[in-house]
Amino acid sequence: MITVSEMAAEKLKEILDEEGQPEGALRVIVVPQGGGAQYMLALEEGLAEDDLLLHDAGVRVIADVDSAPLLDGAEIDYTESLMRSGFVITNPNIATASGGGGGCACGGNCGCG
């Protein structure tokens, strides 16, 4: 349902270890806005009753039942450059002004739109 790059998985494991939550998960929330979306990322200790496990290859990615369908086919990557570093979500379900999938890169505290 969702792909997590090797770089993103490594960074997520590192963050979970630093936070003392090695068994934790990355929660992804999608909030549609106009023709795009806002992504919010959070660390979670466990799953809520209505959560769906979207990815589990060394790291767990979870979403609520409203966000999960919007993440089908999406990819989470991690980028580091001189100008910015953070998780990037490429989502073929969310159109952007450039015509491609929606993305987000905001230094790990994703809440940009």
Overview in brief:
The protein has 113 residues and is mainly beta. Helices cover 12% and strands 46% of the residues.
What does this structure look like?
This protein is mainly beta and 113 residues long. The protein has one domain (2-102): HesB-like domain (Hypothetical Protein Aq_1857, Chain: A), CATH 2.60.300. The chain is 12% helix and 46% strand. It is built from one helix and eight strands. The chain has one helix at 6-18; strands at 2-4, 25-33, 36-44, 51-56, 60-64, 74-80, 85-95, 101-102. The protein has a four-stranded mixed beta sheet with strand order 1-6-7-8. A four-stranded mixed beta sheet has the order 3-2-5-4, with no helix packed on it. Strand 4 (51-56) and strand 5 form a beta hairpin. The radius of gyration is 13 Å and the shape is globular.
Task: Classify the fold: give the CATH topology.
Answer: Hypothetical Protein Aq_1857, Chain: A
Radius of gyration: 13 Å
CATH class: Mainly Beta
Q: How are the strands ordered across the major sheet?
A: 1-6-7-8
- What percentage of amino acids are in beta strands? over 45%
- How many distinct beta strands? 8
Q: How do the SSEs run, as a string of H and E?
A: EHEEEEEEE
Which second-level CATH architecture applies?
Sandwich
